[in-house]
Amino acid sequence: MNIIILTPMEIEREKVLVAINRIINTKHNYQVITCGIGRESIAKTMMHLPSSDCVVLVGFAAIVGKEAELSSCLGFGKPIEITTTSLYGYEGGLFENGKPIQVEAKLNLPTLSSLTSDKFVRTTNLKTETIVNMEDYTFMYLKRPQDFIVRIISDFLPHETEIDFFEHVKQINFLSAIQAIETV
User: Fold this and answer.
1) Helices and strands: H and E segment counts in the chain
2) Other C-beta atoms within 10 Å of 182: how many?
3) Contact between 65 and 80 (Cβ < 8 Å)
4) Main-chain phi, psi angles of 176, to 5 degrees
5) How far is it, in rounded angstroms, from Cα 39 to Cα 93?
């Protein structure tokens, strides 16, 4: 199968490539494309994708909750699949056309809902275990039935201390995410 993996940031692309190279005899052919951060960037990228059997959005994600209080499968660096997305506007208001989109899971990973916002969310009163990002809703709206989203938990909201994000995520590897994609 020819799979395109979209990553919002270059650091995610690098981690995907390292993970793919660690798998001996991959089942699929992968092309990894950095789409950029945000709803507009991912929309533009998806309109110009080469042909493929499947597209997977793979990237870091913040999760609402304290790591010590969440299930161990929702810990730092763990992959999850997004099966429900919703959309909030710049000032936190729900867009009229932003009704939640739900899909069936494709992988054997924990499944969560995500909230796409067009600004970075630092503090929140959202439901615990909600994934927060800037791309999932647009991807879900434009994707084909076989396409899906895998997110890797990178931080916990609200942040209890300020973090240097790129330093914070250095130790995360994407091997378990790519291994899950290999099962498709």
Assistant:
1) 5, 8
2) 16
3) no
4) -65, -30
5) 16
Cβ atoms of residues 115 and 70 within 8 Å:
no
Angstrom CA distances, 161 to 12, 122, 157, stand at 23, 11, 10
Paired tokens of 111: 């499944």
Helix, strand or coil, per DSSP, at residue 97: coil
Q: How confident is the model at residue 97 (pLDDT cuts 50, 70, 90)?
A: low
CA distance 60 to 77: 9
Q: How do residues 51-85 score in pLDDT, each as one tens digit?
A: 999 999 999 999 999 999 999 999 999 999 999 99
Amino acid in position 147: D
pTM above 0.70, yes or no: yes
Tokens representing residue 114 in the block: 């995500």
Residue 162: exposed, middle, or buried by beta-carbon count in 10 A (0-12, 13-18, 19+)?
A: exposed
